[in-house]
Amino acid sequence: MAPTSDLAGRAAVIGPPAPARIAARGDGANRLAILAQVASALILSTAGGALIAATGEWRISVGLLAGAAFVALGMLRPALFVGVLLFARPLLDGIPLSAGALVGVVLIGVCALVLTDRPHVVRPRATMAFGALLIVSAIATLPAFMEFGNVIGLEPLIELVRLAALFAMYMLAAQVVSTPEMVKRVFLIVGLSGVWPALVGLAELLHNPTKIANLGLVRISGTFVGPVVLSSYLALCILILLKLPREDLPRWVRWPALGVMGFALILSYGREGWVLLLLAIVLLHWRDNKRVIAAVAIAGVSLVMLVPGVHARVLPSEEATGSQSQSTFASYDWRVANWRALLERFGERPFTGWGLETVSAVNPRRPVGSARNPVGGFQAHNAAVRALVEGGVLLLGAVLALFAILIGALWRIMRTQGSPLAPYAKLLAAAWIAMVVVALTTNDLLDATALIYALLAMSGALEGAHSRMAVTRGGSAPARTR
Questions:
Q1: Residue 188 and residue 244 in contact, taking contact as beta carbons nearer than 8 Å
Q2: N or C: which end of the chain has fewer CB within 10 A?
Q3: 3-state secondary structure of 232
């Protein structure tokens, strides 16, 4: 038990300030918010006018109007903005003109406006770690532009903006989600947001799809840019709908949605999604329900043995391990050789790295026909290897610290006795751990923006609600407020 004076002092810090201070802080916040809104409007208007004048493209005008409506929604109803964004983000990956990147810029602006307009800002536990990641990434853009600027263009800056948008999603969710009921809604939105991409993927089978010659099967992508991203996102959605409490979602919605997404997950032939889902289920039940683990094992083995496409994807054949054959795209040996080649390049610059988004430029392993393409090398397919190559040990340390703090924050919520948020924190912690394992062993899922958006939004929502509940109970808030 903390002394009475300590509790009183803590309450003075996190409780309501004096009326005079409220008025002064409110006036200052309002002036700052108005200035930010005016500046945002001027910047968007100028950029939009320049784009229309340069291209004469009517779609840009429509996009700008939709973007303005989206910004207005974010300023007027930020909680609804988060929900709409989480549901719509999986639908944007396959849209041209970088719709996802534009939404990220809007998200950063909305988050900035919300933060300037609130007298009390919730600061989640991973705030400093995320800030360190952004700083290290910004430093890593310098060697990228200096040495490869003529071939990689603005890719380092685009990646830096993407990381800032991920941070904005985390912070914004922590500000606008304040109750367990709102947390449940966020999880429901994410869980059901995979239904439409799954339906779009299944519809691909009706339009004479192209068979992948080296695999001998058809892989669906849905609304995403590739099967890997679809499989990982569907795995998260399926996990959420499987593990949400019964009272959160009626059966007539839960099971049809699971059926559609499960079928699409199988037909994506994405090992990343399969591993993510199965590993998360094992993590959730390895102590208290061995029958579930046994059922998952039996179902997994049955799929591998009975479905030819799954068998081919999980068990590499002798033909799929040739070092120069096209079939090495799917082999385990290819990944090991690719990582070895990139780690040799890392050894040349272990502290600074080669720069953000430079893996394809420095990787000596390239597909046939890409020898003359300066950025034609393979991607890392491993988050740790990519971080080492692009930013050295500093960037890898920042990435690992961020993961550790995010999972640690969920662990604290999960261990809070009697908290209605504990089941959601347990579910999300298992999802994060499974995602990290996949990212470090099979494929770099940090590039799966919609997936990371969803994970960070749910993390921020849990921390925001938990912080406010702790303050209401009179205890110390694990997520600081100011």
A1: yes
A2: N
A3: helix
CB 463 within 8 A of CB 409: yes
Q: How far apart are CA 83 and CA 176, in angstroms?
A: 11
Interaxial angle between packed helices 449-473 and 78-88, expressed in degrees from 0 to 180 and rounded to the nearest 10:
150
Q: What's the N-to-C CA distance of the chain in angstroms?
A: 24
Tokens of 153: 């263009």
What string of pLDDT tens digits covers the 482 residues of the chain?
Answer: 444 444 343 333 333 443 433 344 445 555 655 565 566 555 556 655 655 555 555 555 556 666 667 677 777 788 889 999 999 899 888 676 567 777 888 888 889 888 887 778 889 999 999 999 999 999 999 999 998 878 888 889 989 999 999 999 999 999 999 899 999 999 999 999 999 999 999 998 887 666 664 556 778 888 898 888 999 999 999 999 999 988 889 999 999 999 999 999 988 888 889 889 989 998 888 777 666 666 666 666 665 555 555 545 555 554 443 444 344 344 677 788 889 999 999 999 998 899 899 998 888 888 776 666 777 788 888 999 999 999 999 999 999 999 999 999 999 999 988 889 999 999 999 999 999 999 988 888 888 899 999 999 999 999 999 998 877 665 444 444 44
Q: How many CB atoms lie within 10 A of CB 330?
A: 18
Q: Which amino acid is at 331?
A: S
Six-digit token string for 189: 């939105």
Angle between helices 99-116 and 449-473 (to 10 degrees): 20
Phi then psi for residue 480, to 5 deg, are: -65, 150
In whole angstroms, give the CA distance from residue 329 to residue 312: 13
The answer to whether 193 touches 451, Cβ cutoff 8 Å, is: no
Structure tokens at 134: 């952004």
CA torsion sign for 68, 73, 79, 81 is: negative
Alpha carbon separation from 288 to 17, 199, 239, 283, 477 (Å, rounded)? 46, 34, 17, 10, 30
Non-local CB neighbours of 398 within 8 Å, separated by 6+ positions: 129, 132, 133, 136, 137, 387, 391
Q: Distance (Å, rounded) from C-alpha 250 to C-alpha 233? A: 22
